[in-house]
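[[Sequence with tokens]]
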Amino acid sequence: MWAPYRAGAAFLAHVAGGGSPRAVWTALPGLAPPAPEAVPEVVPEGRRGGGRSRKEPDALPVTHWAAAVAEAVLAARSGGRGALVVVPDARDVDQVCAALAAAGLPAWDAATGGEVVRLTADEGPAPRYRAFLAVLHGDARVVVGTRAAAFAPVVDLGLVVCWNDGEDTLAEPRAPYPHAREVLALRSDQQGAAFLLGSHGRTVAAHALVVRGWAHELAAPRDVVRARAPRVRALTSVELAAEGPGAAARIPTAAWRTARAALEQGPVLVQVPRSGYVPVVACARCRTPARCTVCHGPLALSGPQATPQCAWCGALAGGWSCAECHWTGLRSVRVGSQRTAEELGRAFAGVPVQVSGAAAAGGVLGAVSARPALVVATPGAEPVAAGGYAAALLLDAAVSTAHVGLDVAQDALARWLAAAALVRPATEGGQVLLVGDAAPAPTNALVRWDPALLADRELDERVELSLPPAVRVAAVTGDRPAVAAVLGRVALAGPETVLGPVEVAASPRGRGADGADGAAPGLVDAPPVRAVVRVPVRDGRRLARELGASVAVRSARREPGSVRVELDPKEIL
């Protein structure tokens, strides 16, 4: 698995020899080659277009990245050391465990022993605690889990792996808000373990580690990337200018043709950025967004005959009328995965349509067979297809880059690359169509399959604007007097380093970061404020100590109000 990467073999040799190399890894797309005895039998079934279908896979198809992680873990175990792998969700845990089993590292069992334990919330309290004790006592030396597994007490830790660090699930939402990437980086430095940070894309934070020289880059040469990646086309309005009226459709004519041709070769993946049926509606006459009359939240439709319902408070809006023109008709503004599956089912009669997502009837699918089918999935819920998808349609690309935030471009590219990585290579006819006028920078990076290019550009802009990760940032949010009191005891919080405070949207009443309940008397109706402290990277540790001391003084004095202190937040805009 590591032969195509520059210095990939050297990295494994260093890990096996007891070293502690640090690398940021850009994984190649595709699936791992199946074992000879696991190749599914090809059975002609006389399906439409003369296509052939395969039997259902007996085991979960293993992706290339999971097989490469298994080889790295195997290298650490060959040197007598343990390994820790942290991934965003349970589906990725299944991928890594399947790859480790194929590599000869069996799952741990209290009766028979083994090497690998899972640490996820889905396991339940009792199995999770048994796995924790097995790791603590050294009975199991390999841990694969989600965010909380970053703290697993692996005996003689030799390798830590973090996969897809841009996912929100790897950031702890509770104080002190640690990110799995930062926890594993600290552990690798303190315990002398190798560090591997991998993804199909590349976050700006990961690229900053390479630029600073803390980690080295592991990437394949461009000719290898071109040979492994599918063909990618961006169907923007300029690209479709010659298509006529069909170019204005949500799924243009070119996308229909590609999907129809690809269905003769295998399954087709359709990625939709929103779940549900019609999550956003507006007035059919004046296009004013439809709002709830109770809480002013957005209205949505859960089905073709459903009554409009508020997405915030759940109130029904059966007698809704537009506040601007008093019209009672509604039109869709955003289309969800269920409505997309319904439209595709009518357009491709006789072709099975499967929906994968947290809100779907069947939940998130782990894998699908190689039979021709349309698979509609939300980002992060794309199942693995046996043999790879014949094509992928990435719909509503403009929606993915229409938000305001620092990480919008990198997050959109990561979602697109994750889906495109499941498609067959271009040499086998694999195609990926990005539909919509998305931002130019992530669109170009996807077409070129060059996530490092986008990360490098984003990092240069943040250095120029003094934004993280070029600087260390602390966000202090809460009641205005409480925020002022906390910052008043921080020496680094001077006029040249503090932005704000400014008013922010109110959050549900609850505990602050320091554990104080509720708001101060007389400030119940006052909106919360947020101040941002920016310091050079070299002063990051000092800023953390001073903020911690200030919050400790606040707690000891029982100062009123609530305050939330967060270092290096994902979004500061």
Remarks:
- The longest helix spans residues 540-557.
- Confidence is low (pLDDT under 50) at residues 37-57, 508-524.
- The two ends are 40 Å apart (CA to CA).
- The CA atoms of residues 118 and 144 lie 5 Å apart.
